[in-house]
Specification:
Elements lengths: L6 E8 L4 H8 L4 H8 L4 H22 L8 E3 L5 E3 L9 E8 L2 E8 L3 E7 L6 H8 L2 H8 L6 H19 L10 E3 L7 E4 L5 H4 E6 L5 E8 L4 E4 L1
Parallel strand pairs: 1-11
Antiparallel strand pairs: 1-5, 2-3, 4-5, 6-10, 7-8, 9-10
Helix pairs in contact: 2-3
Length: 230
């Protein structure tokens, strides 16, 4: 397995796959993943889910020299997946997957929690109401200071940073979205967590520009880690 101790690798994949490629992808999935795919109401969403899970399996398998179809996942109380690797406790791979629209991002590291979130930038006619509902008062104040032409971008910067942080924690439902603050500027960081005054020094936030029309963020436990696009 590649040395991931001081690196986090970020992989990206388009999800608009051909029918033949999707058939191959479906064959890699476990029964629970197939069941989840079938619950999607719209065929496009179902296809993208299958592609994203196959992308996850194939990429992780490359690090482990394993068969993608044989990887087994376990899920935490709040749904965050982890690899079940009997006998490999000292070589634990940490990862997080996010997909939006036709794009998936996968972050892989070792020995530290990681979260990634990607969103497709869209016009939001109710942006102020959404921000008031989900952002903290400090974040809303910062958003209100952003010029109108850049406000949508600022909104997505805030949203992806908050989501990436919650996904890295792995217990997102236990944290209200307005119970912590992230920055909206060019220096991404965790500013405050209501029950952890030292949180800002424990976490690294990174802004990502994966593709035109998308905004993404990476949350990583600790510091001194190099982000490498694959």
């Amino acid at each position: 397995m590649e040395n991931l101790d001081n690196e986090v690798h970020v992989w990206r994949s388009a999800l608009d796959w051909s029918p033949a490629t999707l058939d191959e992808a479906m064959a890699l999935l476990a029964d629970d993943e197939v069941a989840r795919a079938r619950r999607y109401q719209f065929p496009r969403d179902r296809r993208r889910f299958v592609a994203a899970r196959a992308f996850l399996r194939r990429t992780l398998a490359g690090y482990l020299a394993a068969d993608p179809a044989q990887l087994t996942f376990t899920y935490g109380e709040f749904g965050k997946p982890e690899l079940l690797l009997p006998g490999l406790a000292t070589r634990t791979v940490e990862f997080n997957l996010s997909h939006a629209g036709d794009l998936a991002l996968l972050a892989i590291t070792r020995g530290r929690r990681v979260g990634v979130d990607v969103e497709r930038v869209e016009h939001l006619p109710d942006l102020p109401a959404v921000a008031q509902r989900f952002f903290s008062s400090r974040e809303n104040a910062a958003l209100n200071e952003i010029p109108a032409a850049q406000k949508v971008f600022g909104f997505y910067c805030c949203w992806t940073r908050k989501e990436a942080f919650l996904k890295a924690l792995g217990d997102g439902l236990a944290h209200a979205l307005d119970a912590f603050d992230v920055s909206l500027d060019d220096a991404p960081r965790v500013l405050r967590v209501h029950d952890d005054p030292d949180a800002g020094s424990k976490w690294t936030l990174c802004h990502l520009d994966p593709e035109p029309g998308y905004v993404a963020a990476l949350a990583l436990e600790g510091h001194s880690c190099q982000v490498i696009w694959q």
